[in-house]
Amino acid sequence: MASMTPVEVNTSAGTQLAPVNIGTRNSVLAQIQARAVERALKDAYPDRTYNICPVVVQGDRDKITPLQQLSQGENAKSLWTGELESMLESGDLDIIVHCLKDMPTQLPDHLEIGAILEREDARDALLISPRLPKETTLATLPHGATIGTSSVRRAATLRKLFPHLTFADLRGNVGTRLAKLDAEDSPYSAIILAAAGLKRMGLDSRISQYLSSTSGGMLHAVGQGALGIEIRKNDEGMKEMMSKIRCERTTRACSAERALLRTLEGGCSVPIGVETSWQGGKGLAIGVQPAKDYDKHGNAVEEDEPDVNDQELVLRALVVSVDGKESVEYEATRKVRSAEEAEEMGRDVAKILIEKGADKILEKINVEKQWAAKKQLEELKAKSGTS
Ligand SMILES: NCc1[nH]cc(CCC(=O)O)c1CC(=O)O
């Protein structure tokens, strides 16, 4: 089935290009995202046909092993993307739709990001147990309240800012996590999820507080809220199609974020938070202008955007220790005229964070992670009766 260039198929209607096979995880959210990409492609190429192919991946199958251990070492790459990437490499798929946040910063040799689409809300969101008042925020949660999250970044940042809160693991797709929050005997007072996923699923009415540097002091994950499309490097046909649906502003911002993460050598499970915005342009050189403005309901305010080349990218980044006691933070502002220049900015900000002590924080986390993995392995062996 390998199709490095579009295959021509003979039908009664004449010669036709083969359908574009779109790979996706099989969760509800993943399939909504795949349909959004299909729609964008259909708009640009109405004459092509499209096939959405949902695939069950390892990360969705294994719900027992703690995420941090699952994503150790070589597993880190394959957990959410491995099976789909094999199908892309073999030609069974032509593109894979990913949450950019779940994509490793280093891709397999023959694959690349073909396009990054316009970003949905990049922020994290706080959702409150139905037992608590809807207007509850991080700051007004009761002392000792338990927050459900499996994200080291989210827990570490919140430990730093809200030491009165406690944290417990919470896994599963968005629907499962909401059900666990709402359960009568739920151990959680609140959970934190990406606003983007909730908005895509039409569940944003559940959000009690949108979190950002100016609300709750939370920075989001690298690439959060954006979709990344993976293609084969040598697939010129797909490259051409991708160029019609990419978003330059999002591509530059996320390129800076991903280069920062790559330089700090962090996987998706390390406590690095970022926030990017664009400022200036159109004679608005004074005054910060967020990448998107949001009204009081959390909806993006549409306005004429200035030319991205007239603007400056603001990149803020935070590295925090797991206990929340140590952290380094930095913010840079720069004109970036291409994705490559944005990557350079990301690397430069990473170097400054390292100079400020980020390497020591990350080194300690890696040592602790290896120790925890070793301990877990020993426990498993002891349980199964082998030595
Ligand atoms: N960690 C899992 C994950 N990966 C991407 C999203 C959805 C948001 C996005 O597109 O970035 C989520 C869920 C969440 O963090 O709440």
Summary keywords:
single chain; 387 residues; alpha/beta; D-Maltodextrin-Binding Protein, domain 2; Double Stranded RNA Binding Domain; 3 domains; 5-stranded mixed beta sheet; 11 helices; 17 strands; 35% helix; binds ligand PBG
How does this model look, in words?
The chain is an alpha/beta fold and about 375 residues long. It has 3 domains: about 1-115 and about 225-245, Periplasmic binding protein-like II (D-Maltodextrin-Binding Protein, domain 2), CATH 3.40.190; about 125-210, 3-Layer(aba) Sandwich (D-Maltodextrin-Binding Protein, domain 2), CATH 3.40.190.10; about 245-385, 2-Layer Sandwich (Double Stranded RNA Binding Domain), CATH 3.30.160.40. The protein is about 35% helix and about 20% strand. The chain is built from 11 helices and 17 strands. The protein has helices at about 30-45, 60, 65-70, 75-90, 150-160, 175-180, 195-200, 235-245, 250-265, 340-355, 360-385; strands at about 10, 15, 20-25, 50-55, 95-100, 110-115, 125-130, 145-150, 165-170, 190-195, 205-210, 225-230, 270-280, 295, 300, 310-320, 325-335. The strands form 5 sheets. The chain has a 5-stranded mixed β-sheet, with helices on both faces. Strands 9-8-10-7-11 form a 5-stranded mixed β-sheet, sandwiched between helices. Helix 9 packs parallel to helix 10. The radius of gyration is 21 Å and the shape is globular. The termini are far apart. The relative contact order is 0.13. Residues about 70-75 and about 285-290 have low confidence and may be disordered. The site of ligand PBG has 9 residues, from strand 10 and helix 7.
